[in-house]
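Hi support team,

I submitted a single chain yesterday and got back a structure, but I'm not sure I'm reading the token output correctly. Could someone confirm the output below corresponds to the sequence I sent? I've pasted both exactly as they appear in my results page.

Thanks,
R.
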Amino acid sequence: MIRRREFLIASASAAVAGGIRAQQPGRATLDRIAIMSLCFSPVIKSAAHPDDPKRTLEIMDLPGMIAERYGVHHVEMQHSHFASTESGYLEQFRNRLQKAKSSMNQINVEFGPHNISAPDPVVRQETIDMTNKWVDYAVLLGCPRVMVNQGTLAPDVRQAAIETLRTINAYAKPKQVFITMENRGVGRAPTWQVVVEVIKASGIFANPDIGNFADEESRAAGLRALYPLSSGSSHCHYDPGRYSEANAIRISKEVGYKGLYSIEAAANNGPDPYVAVQTILDELLKDI
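Hi R., thanks for writing in. Yes, this is the structure output for that exact sequence:
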């Protein structure tokens, strides 16, 4: 028979253990989160900055680092962070993802003047060709999404941009890759309304970005329009001086969003990207 003192000690220990477990985020919650390689741009080793002592992170180590440090197993990549597009290199990166029990959420392509809004039809065709190559790389990496940079979507090029997206989408769809587009930053064209218009007209998908709105009124309206058009990816920041992340997440839930929240840390989150990502992760875990 267990004496009373032993029983009380055992009960207290169980309560403490239960409290610790209660404080730990559940696997299902962490599985709703991705982390962008963009967050670590200042510390990723780069051929363009070979002597920068701050750049200590090998891109091949990124999936394992994210999994070990944050318990997150979805990685979102900038296309420019890959050191090569040779099949052997990409297969090696895919193997590193698998070793970390992780997957790639999305590849974001940024080709500068080569975007769907380029006035020159030759440049638009080159944009199609470049994007299609990254669709093929996404297939090799087991990545379901490629996000394009939409450029201006100005009225005089908008229809051409829509046709360009339709062409890219026609290439990606049979390969089971979603083409996505996000609403861009405050004060930058195009507006979220134009983004919604182009997404619907071209048949692609939205990547809602909760930070990229001028005010709470437009954020609420824009997110309610964008989340239903998503293929399952959304960018999340943390800037409590400008907006409430909790309100944005609440809106995503109200409209039935079941996809990933991908962390995008910025300079306002502090100089240390590792700490900045943890700050956003902690807030997301409270809200989702």
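A quick pointer for reading it: DSSP finds ten helices and eight strands in the chain. Let us know if anything else looks off.

Best,
Support desk
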